[in-house]
Amino acid sequence: MSLTRSFRHPGALVALFALVVACEPDDTESAPPEDSQTALGATGGGEDSGDGGAGDQDEPQDSQGSAPTLLLECGIDPACDALLLDPAAIASASADARCLFTALGAGEPTLLQTLTLFDRSVANLDLAILSPGEVLRQTYGASVGLGEWINPVMRCTLRSPDFFAACAADLDPSCLDPEQWFLDCEEEPTLHCPAL
Question: How many helices (H) and strands (E) does the chain have?
Answer without folding.
Answer: 4, 7
